[in-house]
């Protein structure tokens, strides 16, 4: 379970304004004017955790350069070590901590317990690895994450002949009784609740006797770019992996190569920082912005202009310049649901109404994000209506108040965006940002405080 390794700083974060209240709430730093800042963000959660899994299943050692060090990636490292992989630090080649050298296990062994924490990538990617290990592996998670859906993955692995004990087939905890091999072959699953069910099967599939020919049978498929990220990561390691239709994928059996991989910055964690430029009419530059990527956060380059911002991408950087006013938007975010909290926060500060659709699945993220965003924005005086698959946001003047995080890093950072321009927003459990960005409070302070004009 989570230890206080990544606690929020208790010290003054932004002059007197950020002195913590009598409880542990974090007073969101208010921008004294347009925020003008340049930053580099740590590595991508989604790429780091895919590369860790592939490195642990590879046929030779790998080096991961500039990986993310956060609670989600630490949980992934611990999980793969528990199954027998060796993961050792090597001198840093990035700004945010050691590289990793990963040596695959000679033979994966179960008889262990894996704590997934709050990480969807651990609970959805590692069960198939455990099926390839010999012995039982128990999977559990924080109470807050035990309710996250697992049904599509459990049903898929079970259909492949993997023995899984569970009190509920749709959630943790459960035990995977690994036998050291999985036959694989043709499989149909319903991944409408999470693309991670698909990625979790594809990542281990080169090690299945017959690989996999996977079909999604549900009505909708969220977060498709994350499936493309999985296919891309497999191909870069020499695996024959492809999609043969919008909801069908093939991975051939065969070796996964060891690689020297540089992890890109996390472009989804870029969302609140770039949103700060939009919220304050300022200018924020992030370096480490890849020219080509499968990260859905790259879509911010065309999403933020819809709010009135100007965006320039090039030379490994993105610069977002906010306009004096924020426009309302009408967006379908089916492919990029993890960007929704930051964009909903901007919509709440806009001059006109917004609708964000295609994100029913984010009810299954760290919390029901549609309900959480509506509740928290409305608590500050906003007017947000929950739709079946999205939010309708009508801007109203917002006032000071408490913002609950629901153990959700992106809820905490959405509150920080609003707190830039609404004095007295107190964020409960800012430490939950450690899930993917332990440096959030200090980077935010640096951005707002040191560089405001
Ligand atoms: O595979 C991944 O790394 C992810 C897939 C997406 O999950 P969903 O398909 O559940 O939205 C995304 O929202 C999550 O943050 C990361
Ligand atoms: C949905 C998210 O996380 P997870 O990888 O835990 O699903 C997220 O980071 O927005």
UniProtKB/TrEMBL annotation:
Domain Enolpyruvate transferase: residue ranges: 33-441
One term under GO cellular component: cytoplasm
SUBUNIT field: Monomer.
Pathway the protein contributes to: Metabolic intermediate biosynthesis; chorismate biosynthesis; chorismate from D-erythrose 4-phosphate and phosphoenolpyruvate: step 6/7
EC code: 2.5.1.19
GO BP annotations, alphabetical order: amino acid biosynthetic process; aromatic amino acid family biosynthetic process; chorismate biosynthetic process
Subcellular location: Cytoplasm
Keywords: Amino-acid biosynthesis, Aromatic amino acid biosynthesis, Cytoplasm, Transferase
UniProt-listed SUPFAM superfamilies: EPT/RTPC-like
The protein's role, per its UniProt record: Catalyzes the transfer of the enolpyruvyl moiety of phosphoenolpyruvate (PEP) to the 5-hydroxyl of shikimate-3-phosphate (S3P) to produce enolpyruvyl shikimate-3-phosphate and inorganic phosphate.
InterPro entries recorded: Enolpyruvate_Tfrase_dom (IPR001986), Enolpyruvate_Tfrase_sf (IPR036968), EPSP_synthase (IPR006264), EPSP_synthase_CS (IPR023193), RNA3'P_cycl/enolpyr_Trfase_a/b (IPR013792)
Family membership noted in the UniProt record: Belongs to the EPSP synthase family.
Binding site for phosphoenolpyruvate: 45, 120, 148, 196, 369, 410, 435
GO MF annotation, one: 3-phosphoshikimate 1-carboxyvinyltransferase activity
Origin superkingdom: Bacteria
Active site location: 338 (proton acceptor)
HAMAP family: EPSP_synth
Catalytic activity: 3-phosphoshikimate + phosphoenolpyruvate = 5-O-(1-carboxyvinyl)-3-phosphoshikimate + phosphate
Record-listed 3-phosphoshikimate binding positions: 45-46, 50, 194-196, 223, 338, 365
Name of protein: 3-phosphoshikimate 1-carboxyvinyltransferase
Pfam family, one: EPSP_synthase
Main location: cytoplasm
